[in-house]
Protein 1
Amino acid sequence: MNLMNGVRPPRQGENVVYICYKCQHRFTAKLSILPLPVKCPECGSLKTSRDFGVAY
């Protein structure tokens, strides 16, 4: 981690941005300790992933 830019990775229990690959909906959910899929609140799909294009 570069201490000069002030960006740190999110910790367990913090909200992170996810994106659904089925409906392209972006939403926030708490980061879990286990890498389980997160259900999309719009369409209910489990084809989601963290959106790493968002700086925290």
Note: The mean pLDDT is 87.
Protein 2
Amino acid sequence: MEEIKSLITILSALLTPTVAIVGIYIGILNYRLQIRKRNDDLFDRRYKFLKQFESLWKTTGPEQKGATRMSLEWDDIEPYAQEAYYLFGKDIAEHLRSYEGKSYDQNFNWVPDYELAKPFNKYLCFEKTK
């Protein structure tokens, strides 16, 4: 009977540290999950931004090809450049500003513009680049 009481005392003494360790482990897993979610949400915002600017870019060009404006003006680009500065950094903001006065000249609007998207690869590509 004494052995059972001492066993119960030992197990009750071990219960508190065990619960604490399990709580810490769950906290660490939750932290890692939140980091992944933040990265996923940031990717979604960045990709959506790229597609919105690409849509604006593809509205430029000759009217015969269905364009609604001749070229991108400063006031068209600057709101995108300001948002890009906070989402990506200075390099993407400058890249977008370089499109001022230019127009999209390809015939296929459904084909992605790889020259526009190339600088975004650093922020949107999941593969490790060498």
Note: The chain is about 65% helix and 0% strand.
Protein 3
Amino acid sequence: MKIQKKYVLSFIILLVIIVVAGVILTSKMTISFKEAALGQVNLGEIDTIEIIKSDDNSANEKK
């Protein structure tokens, strides 16, 4: 009985460590929109923005 409890406890501790490590690693991999998109363009060169809304049917396209 004691051996089984040790295995279960060890498995739970290992699982918690893996989950915590995964959360830490993925949180450091996320970047903001500003870092991803705006870091690649010069905002001084942009004078207009055109937004197009469309449905599955291309005839319903709106600007």
Note: The mean pLDDT is 80.
Protein 4
Amino acid sequence: MKNKLKSIFPLSHPQHIILGLALIGVGLILICNDYYFFWPPFATAFLNDDLIGGIFMIIGILVIKWALDNHNKIAVNRNLLIITAGLLALEATAEFCHGYVSDQPHMFTAGFLEVIILLFDFSIIGKSKKRSY
């Protein structure tokens, strides 16, 4: 059964695909909701901009493309995973700040889930090749 699945879906980096799908999901949520962030008041225009959600989606698509590509470059993987970590850390921090200010539990939940995705990203970074030998 396992060999049959590998012949149908020859994925050598399934964790990257999961991470990419998570980034695309976060990006879609941020694009679809133009009033998600409300604090701090001076940063709401920046945080609610569709560009932020678009960046999440683009990085997610690039991570999936890297995982499906036959010419996987180590430097590209490293850069994508580091950018992903920065985006997820920014998003989790914003969620926790909003949850604290608004006292809304769904924002704490979203913050914790993004921290878990961030830890998953760190796990991928730890297992990935650092240089080609």
Note: Residues 4 and 38 are 49 Å apart (CA to CA).
